[in-house]
Amino acid sequence: MICSADDLLEWKDFPKGLRVLLLDEDSVSAAEIKPKLEEMDYIVSTFCTADEALIAISSEHESFHVAIVEVSTSSQQDCFKFLESAEDLPTIISKGHECLGAAEFLQKPLSEDKLRNIWQHVVHKAFNAKDSALSKPVKPFNDMLQLQQETNEDEDKKLMGIEISAYNSEFDHEQSTVSDKFQAPSTPQLKQGCRFLDDGQSNCSLEKEHGDLEGESKSVETTCNNSVAETTCDNSVEEVSVMVDPSLTPKEVAVKEENSVERSRSGNSLSCHPQKVEKKAESKGDNPRIEAPNPNSCGRKTNRKIKVDWTPELHKRFVQAVEQLGVDQAIPSRILDLMKVEGLTRHNVASHLQKYRMHRRHIVPKDDDRRWQHPRGPTPRVYPHKPIMAYPPYHTNHSFTPNQFYPVWGHPSNHHSSMQMWGHPGFPTWHPQDSWSWNTHPWMHADAWGRPMMPPSPGPCSNFPQNASGFHSLHPFEECINSPSNSFDFHPAEELIDKVVREAVSKPWLPLPLGLKPPSTESVLSELHRQGICNIPPPPTHHQC
DNA sequence: AAAGCAATAT
DNA sequence: AATATTGCTT
Predict the structure, then answer these.
(1) Could you tell me the fold of the domain covering A5-133?
(2) Is DNA-binding a UniProt keyword of this protein (predicted)?
(3) Nearest nucleotide from residue A347 CA, by C1' atom
(4) How many Cα atoms within 13 Å fall on the side-chain side of residue A258?
(5) Where are the domains of chain A?
(6) How does pLDDT run across A274-329, given as a tens digit for each residue?
(7) Which of A344, A439, A469, A507 gives the lowest tally of CB atoms within 10 Å of its CB?
(8) A303 CA to B9 C1', in Å?
(9) Contacts of strand B, CB cut-off 7 Å?
């Protein structure tokens, strides 16, 4: 059965009580999945054979909201048979290596999150049914799910908003941007999902079934066939599950996919982009590489050159190469050598370098350069009230005017709206090797990754405030843990901490970096006492410089 | 030939 | 919007 929108609206504690049909020939795996589902207050009925399941469906047709079918290669026919007979029952096929015109891939093993989210397919289906509540107010349901909703969109978009928000609410650890909304309703887009396979969370989502509803919306179309799915996703995924439109037979799926290819050719299809950069997980120590177009896949017709997706990781490599070479020596060919990214061309690098340089130039206005490059110049202005950021080496403080943000070059992100990151003193977090804020710190003040600038002659009586109230440091922490790409490089490297400490010890006259607090008088005195130094001169009286 | 830049195309 | 391409100069 298909659960109608009306049903959902009246379903008080949805998705509790969702009736799940679990068809799995492997009783062991069924025994693993079932309790997980039951923990989520789903009502699970397991079946070992398609026939049993079909009998159950035909006899208790109203009894299931969603089906999960684990299908082995040998039982594929059974699977199709089940799909046909199951008609409108949203069915998630959990399968081995093949992709059956997928609406969604779920990486196995099926985690709690993934299982928990199966209700979303019921919602999706409910609101995409021909005579669903398309024209009905959706607010109640939205409220019920405690979802956020755009208020200025038309009804269709609202519907999408529900579904998308719902998905996002479950995947709120994933990045979610406005543009993403219409690309991957349920899970991170394939582009992301496959790229970050090593994060253990990512799923690949391909959406194929509601083009008629969305019109020109940017849902990620299913344009991959088996080979694409494998080439793009198989790096480390052992198995995927596949969500197919329950109302479609395999043939129909195929037809729809063809249409999707046509529709998405104009540029927004991500799933199918053989041109996309795919890189192996760096955690495995492999060099990233640019995937060559797959001649067997949907990219066959397009002669476009590979379009490099400068992912944060790729960009990081780029930046590392540039820094290794030094800005002056960094030319495309050398950067290319250092980056060791298979398939990347010098042109790609040159293009990126051009942008990179322009950006750097833009965010370090000449005015500032002149002011800071000659600290002995005409009485450098010091802003005691201004925030100072301590980045390693810690004495290269960056001074800037609050509110004076420069545009940040990065992927579009709703994090732009969270630029008010000031006011978390003493959090010595930085990304030592990622000085270029690429999506990772979209809110970061430009100066933070611009040219290092020396404070004007910091002496024993530095004007730079050192206590917490004088500092406004950024607080990247939340961002780091929220974004999957960030966890990647969030390592307050010990060497750096050591370095900072060493520097602080060797140059005691400099202001301490954020995060390092001067020892308390008491602890110093007791330590001196412990070492037998009892004759301590009184501290110098405070004086102005 | 490679680099770098700006304008333009996709 | 991001990236590629092109055309030009160095």
Answers:
(1) Rossmann fold (3.40.50)
(2) yes
(3) C4
(4) 5
(5) 5-133, 312-361
(6) 333 333 333 334 566 665 444 443 333 334 466 778 888 888 888 888 888 888 78
(7) A469
(8) 15
(9) A 304, 331-334, 346, 350, 353-354, 357-358
